[in-house]
């Protein structure tokens, strides 16, 4: 089997190219993206489409293979919230499953909290060193259904397999 991939950079529908409007973060209507197609023996096998906003944050990733579509949509809340809310949807044939997750950051970009339908994970950091860098001090994972603390050696990755439940890091 031969594999070939090609990448096409195109503006998203309604997206614009060109100079910024001069706002603090540039032209907020500007979006762009890419589409990668993996072909096996000359036939399209998998297509991955990604779209980014004017701050180069991914707002959409859609993967299509045969009759299965995986779609990840990110919504970013502005400071001081510093939060991204993600909707993950899997569609296969006539069956669709979806899940909401969120991630909250501090003003330096460190993850403070991850939320999934089943868990809430809190992260704490050591004070910044002389160069301003922080290091992860502790991770606490709380089960939202039972209220118990899950051992930090197997924290949730923030993802859930639609068939087998939460995916853990080992």
From TrEMBL:
Protein name stated in the entry: RHS repeat protein
Comp. bias (Low complexity): 11-22
Disordered as annotated region, ranges: 1-30, 91-110, 146-170
Stretches with biased composition (Basic and acidic residues): 100-110
